[in-house]
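Dear colleagues,

I hope this message finds you well. In preparation for our joint manuscript, I am sending the NIPA magnesium transporter 1 (Sarcophilus harrisii) sequence together with its predicted structure, so that both groups work from identical material. I would be grateful if you could confirm receipt.
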Amino acid sequence: MMPATAAAAGEGAHSPSPAAVSLGLSVAVVSSLVNGSTFVLQKKGIVRAKRRGTSYLTDIVWWSGTIAMALGQIGNFLAYTAVPTVLVTPLGALGVPFGSILASYLLKEKLNILGKLGCLLSCAGSVVLIIHSPKSESVTTQAELEEKLTNPVFVGYLCIVLLMLLLLIFWIAPAHGPTNIMVYISICSLLGSFTVPSTKGIGLAAQDIFHNNPSSQRALYLCLVLLAVLGCSIIIQFRYINKALECFDSSVFGAIYYVVFTTLVLLASAILFREWSNVGLVDFLGMACGFTTVSIGIVLIQVFKEFNFNLGEMNKPNMKTD
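The corresponding structure tokens are as follows:
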């Protein structure tokens, strides 16, 4: 039984061509940089609108951030169709240091030497994630996707996420959202359990839509359902991201959002697509170390941002004389 199971698992995994992987990685990296700029541009637009006493919907900078967000999501969609989810999602870390650097210029937010070190660690951790991530897909057809979507474990997970979202949106957010950053972040991150798998699923279903066979009609219905789920999730995410940016620092929001969002998306993808089944122990430990390195870098960027610390001050004690 064991050899047969292993053979079945090997047959179910599909390895994209090196060109597809390179293209997917390139699109993912560019998308993460574009997404890293969105919070900063939207925050800048909100600040400008408040100074004028108008709605941020009338500010061109806010709209540029919104358009950048749309372009970044399109790029993510293309990347998800080319390479595994567990490879694309962690690369969003590159947007955090880029956003912090951009915020230091546009919003005059502080970025000291520890923040710059955090940027370097985030980039290094992302490289480690790329090296050790799975290079094969465990779900490659519409039939496999439908089977995974009806899996009781995944359905149970989605029910728990829906209950948490209802509790957060209707009871906790109105009372504690403006004072607790984790409320809005939790809503946006939990919605990632729908957006990323839906995006991946649309890419798989779209492959069969234009084929002249009985499964094309089922693929069309599945694609429409996933598009509706994706659209609703993005609209709700968009609303609460802007609510968070009205109340909190864009860099702090972006950093915490990355860690929570990535963790929940990887959990949802692990349950649905089982991409981790093709990862060996060494690669698993490598990805864990890479994600930890990224998280430490993000902490250095944000937690110590208020410290007035630079390399020049390190030499001051040595310059004192008796």
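For the figure legend, we might mention the following. DSSP finds 14 helices and no strands in the chain. The mean pLDDT is 78.

With kind regards,
E.M.
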